[in-house]
């Protein structure tokens, strides 16, 4: 399925850090968690921030691939499985966002007892997460700070023709 978003949402490192710390705060008390499963790659940075805030040192990853940039493939590939848990009990599964929900649907079947959290959520996949910080419209494409760099912009006066 190929599609084009008509809106873009640019997230800075500071904003991602703030929103992810807010997500971490909501997962207190920390003692209820045995560990974290980060959904690689997008979930790795949020998972590191949450692991730090909740003082969780067991951090596993599950590696899946479903998108080639903005083109979603129909099949989802499991590149590396979870080893730290079999059913997810006492584990936080962390991803950067839920969009169609395909990725988390697949992981919920594998880890039915885990708590699934993302920083951002779009309507189609929202019911698949137990907690998220901000919702965005389905048509919006989110740009994460690791996909961007700062660049010069002409002053408004310089842009007049
Ligand atoms: O709800 P969905 O429609 O499944 O989309 C959300 C998933 O898509 C992105 O990952 P992607 O597969 O692009 O890989 P990446 O994390 O390695 O960038 C994002 O990080 C989520 O994991
Ligand atoms: N970066 C990024 N990856 C995605 N994968 C699915 N939806 C999105 C999105 O809005 N932004
Ligand atoms: Mg991902």
From TrEMBL:
<dbReference type="GO" id="GO:0032264">
    <property type="term" value="P:IMP salvage"/>
</dbReference>
<dbReference type="GO" id="GO:0000310">
    <property type="term" value="F:xanthine phosphoribosyltransferase activity"/>
</dbReference>
<keyword id="KW-0479">Metal-binding</keyword>
<dbReference type="GO" id="GO:0004422">
    <property type="term" value="F:hypoxanthine phosphoribosyltransferase activity"/>
</dbReference>
<comment type="subunit">
    <text>Homotetramer.</text>
</comment>
<feature type="binding site">
    <location>
        <begin position="99"/>
        <end position="103"/>
    </location>
    <ligand>
        <name>GMP</name>
    </ligand>
</feature>
<keyword id="KW-0808">Transferase</keyword>
<keyword id="KW-0660">Purine salvage</keyword>
<comment type="similarity">
    <text>Belongs to the purine/pyrimidine phosphoribosyltransferase family. XGPT subfamily.</text>
</comment>
<feature type="binding site">
    <location>
        <begin position="41"/>
        <end position="42"/>
    </location>
    <ligand>
        <name>5-phospho-alpha-D-ribose 1-diphosphate</name>
    </ligand>
</feature>
<dbReference type="InterPro" id="IPR029057">
    <property type="entry name" value="PRTase-like"/>
</dbReference>
<keyword id="KW-0328">Glycosyltransferase</keyword>
<dbReference type="InterPro" id="IPR000836">
    <property type="entry name" value="PRTase_dom"/>
</dbReference>
<feature type="domain" description="Phosphoribosyltransferase">
    <location>
        <begin position="13"/>
        <end position="151"/>
    </location>
</feature>
<feature type="binding site">
    <location>
        <position position="142"/>
    </location>
    <ligand>
        <name>guanine</name>
    </ligand>
</feature>
<dbReference type="GO" id="GO:0032263">
    <property type="term" value="P:GMP salvage"/>
</dbReference>
<comment type="pathway">
    <text>Purine metabolism; XMP biosynthesis via salvage pathway; XMP from xanthine: step 1/1.</text>
</comment>
<feature type="binding site">
    <location>
        <position position="142"/>
    </location>
    <ligand>
        <name>xanthine</name>
    </ligand>
</feature>
<comment type="pathway">
    <text>Purine metabolism; GMP biosynthesis via salvage pathway; GMP from guanine: step 1/1.</text>
</comment>
<feature type="binding site">
    <location>
        <position position="99"/>
    </location>
    <ligand>
        <name>xanthine</name>
    </ligand>
</feature>
<protein>
    <recommendedName>
        <fullName>Xanthine-guanine phosphoribosyltransferase</fullName>
        <ecNumber>2.4.2.22</ecNumber>
    </recommendedName>
</protein>
<keyword id="KW-0460">Magnesium</keyword>
<dbReference type="GO" id="GO:0032265">
    <property type="term" value="P:XMP salvage"/>
</dbReference>
<keyword id="KW-0472">Membrane</keyword>
<feature type="binding site">
    <location>
        <begin position="141"/>
        <end position="142"/>
    </location>
    <ligand>
        <name>GMP</name>
    </ligand>
</feature>
<dbReference type="GO" id="GO:0000287">
    <property type="term" value="F:magnesium ion binding"/>
</dbReference>
<feature type="binding site">
    <location>
        <position position="99"/>
    </location>
    <ligand>
        <name>guanine</name>
    </ligand>
</feature>
<comment type="function">
    <text>Purine salvage pathway enzyme that catalyzes the transfer of the ribosyl-5-phosphate group from 5-phospho-alpha-D-ribose 1-diphosphate (PRPP) to the N9 position of the 6-oxopurines guanine and xanthine to form the corresponding ribonucleotides GMP (guanosine 5'-monophosphate) and XMP (xanthosine 5'-monophosphate), with the release of PPi. To a lesser extent, also acts on hypoxanthine.</text>
</comment>
<dbReference type="GO" id="GO:0005886">
    <property type="term" value="C:plasma membrane"/>
</dbReference>
<dbReference type="Pfam" id="PF00156">
    <property type="entry name" value="Pribosyltran"/>
</dbReference>
<dbReference type="InterPro" id="IPR023747">
    <property type="entry name" value="Xanthine_Guanine_PRibTrfase"/>
</dbReference>
<dbReference type="GO" id="GO:0052657">
    <property type="term" value="F:guanine phosphoribosyltransferase activity"/>
</dbReference>
<keyword id="KW-1003">Cell membrane</keyword>
<feature type="binding site">
    <location>
        <position position="96"/>
    </location>
    <ligand>
        <name>Mg(2+)</name>
    </ligand>
</feature>
<dbReference type="GO" id="GO:0005829">
    <property type="term" value="C:cytosol"/>
</dbReference>
<feature type="binding site">
    <location>
        <begin position="95"/>
        <end position="103"/>
    </location>
    <ligand>
        <name>5-phospho-alpha-D-ribose 1-diphosphate</name>
    </ligand>
</feature>
<dbReference type="GO" id="GO:0006166">
    <property type="term" value="P:purine ribonucleoside salvage"/>
</dbReference>
